[in-house]
Amino acid sequence: MTPATARLFCSCALLLAVGAASAQGLYRNVDANGRVTYTDRPPAANAQPAPVGRSGSGAGASAQLPFELRQIVQRYPVTLYTGDDCAPCATGRQLLQTRGIPFDERTVKSSEDIAALERLSGRNGLPLLTIGSQQLKGFSDAEWSQYLDAAGYPKSVQLPAGYRNPPAQPLVAQQAAPAVPAPVPAAVQAPPAAPPSDAPTPSNPAGIRF
């Protein structure tokens, strides 16, 4: 066998081996840490996918996020602070939704909310966007996009179908009013006890018993 024939034989054998592996099929496995591996063994029947959803109470908060996006959300969570009748707030919200940015929204309405916003940002202007510890005061399409890019957020939607951000919540959690206790009824006056039979009475001054 000439060297050229030997090389051709090895190449054909390699192609056949690859073809056989492809014919058997490969299975994609994702462990609890989000690492992706490929194997020719099917996953166990009772294997459960690792949960990678957002925390929260929204309808889509438990939807699974891509591992890379989940890591970004954990490092640089995004929170949008908005108010009523605030056109820039609506524009900023639309920007986040268009890019598919998972975010929490806090509304500023009450005097307690305004005071908390001033303590947080040093001003009461809206909207306010936080990306991790970075604060962006007022809406600017270019500035917001620049910081989202720097944090590693994708430029286009990579959210799973059906994903929904948690519903907006007040900046200061509203505490339920304390329950008013029911009035305590006046104590019922017991009738005076009858005097003992041997106690003196007008008709029996000596208290003589028979």
What would you say about this model in short?
Helices cover about 30% and strands about 15% of the residues.
- What's the shape? rod-shaped
> Mind summarizing the main beta sheet?
5 strands, mixed
- Largest sheet: spatial strand order: 6-5-3-4-7
CATH class designation of the domain at 67-170: Alpha Beta
> What is the CA-atom radius of gyration, in angstroms?
37 Å
Helix count equals 5
- In round numbers, the mean pLDDT is 75
Low-confidence stretches: 3-26, 45-63
CATH architecture of the domain at 67-170: 3-Layer(aba) Sandwich
* CATH domain topology of the domain at 67-170: Glutaredoxin
How helix-rich are the residues, as a percent range?
A: 25-40%
- The CATH homologous superfamily name of the domain at 67-170 equals Glutaredoxin
Let me know the number of strands: 7
Compute the separation of the termini in Å. Answer: 144 Å
Structural class: alpha/beta
State which percent range the strand residues make up: 5-15%
**What is the string of SSEs from the N terminus onward?**
HEEHEHEHEEHE
What are the main properties of this structure?
single chain, 210 residues, alpha/beta, five-stranded mixed beta sheet, 5 helices, 31% helix, 13% strand, rod-shaped
